[in-house]
Design a protein that fits this description.
The protein is mainly alpha-helical. It is built from two helices and no strands. The chain has helices at 10-33, 39-59.
């Protein structure tokens, strides 16, 4: 776990959101590829997580690697 007392920079926050976006996509692709029995639930959770990330991406105007 990464804990830091000072507030991260905008660039640090931007990189974190971009990484979360990529990890979510990788996770969903892995679930689909492995044909997990809970694909429907994982797809729903991943979709909801993506929607929340998209709000942050739009709010902070982070669109470099997500198009």
């Amino acid at each position: 776990m990464w804990i830091k007392e000072e507030k991260p920079s905008f660039e640090g926050a931007k990189k974190a959101v971009q990484k979360m976006y990529s990890l979510n996509s990788l996770f969903l692709d892995s679930v689909k590829y492995n044909e997990c029995e809970c694909l429907e639930k994982y797809s729903y959770v991943s979709g909801e997580f993506f929607n929340l990330l998209w709000v942050l991406i739009l709010y902070f105007e982070i669109c470099d690697d997500t198009n």
